[in-house]
Amino acid sequence: MNKFVRVGQIINTQGVKGQVRVWPLTKDPARFMQLKRVYLEEKVPGCPDKLTINQSKAHRNVFLISFEEIQDMTTAEKLKEVYLTIPVEEVPPLEEGSYYHFQLEGLEVFTETGESLGLLRQIIETGSNDVYLVRSEDTGKEVLIPALKSVVLQVDLEKGRMTVQLPEGLLE
């Protein structure tokens, strides 16, 4: 089964010819200018799963996108709140030591002494640095870990694990 990654969310329609407003879910929103097609994350009655992008234009902090398959506002309205995705194989590679959120979510997090803290369940963007919400499956206990190079010692995507050195007093 192919894995897909969210790249945007349709937040509203624009005009009467089927154009939509898309909130980008990417660190590089300019990627919307290069995308040729996207997939709907969920089935929408009367709409194909794959949409071909005719035009994409930046407008304030959203993108105005028209699709070949969507020609009227009535059909476009069905797409409100739907996420747009691309196959994971089409995600551009990052420089070494950098990771996409989808790569990190679900990793098992361990301390440098080997203690399992749980699974990375959510990445919270705070503006200065991300914060990882890690939840133990056994106890349900949650810990918030700052995503700093001084804290995150190692990420091993193949083994599905992250090793961290917690700041003193974080678990108290």
UniProtKB/TrEMBL annotation:
Belongs to the RimM family. Its main location: cytoplasm. The PRC barrel domain binds ribosomal protein uS19. Residues 102-170 form the Ribosome maturation factor RimM PRC barrel domain. It comes from Heliobacterium mobile (Heliobacillus mobilis). GO terms for cellular component: cytoplasm; ribosome. Binds ribosomal protein uS19. GO terms for molecular function: ribosome binding. One of its GO terms (biological process) is ribosomal small subunit biogenesis. An accessory protein needed during the final step in the assembly of 30S ribosomal subunit, possibly for assembly of the head region. Essential for efficient processing of 16S rRNA. May be needed both before and after RbfA during the maturation of 16S rRNA. It has affinity for free ribosomal 30S subunits but not for 70S ribosomes. It is found in: Cytoplasm. Keywords: Chaperone, Cytoplasm, Ribosome biogenesis, rRNA processing. Pfam families: PRC_RimM, RimM. This is Ribosome maturation factor RimM. InterPro entries: PRC_barrel-like_sf, PRC_RimM, RimM, RimM_N, RimM_N_sf, Transl_B-barrel_sf. Residues 7-89 form the RimM N-terminal domain.
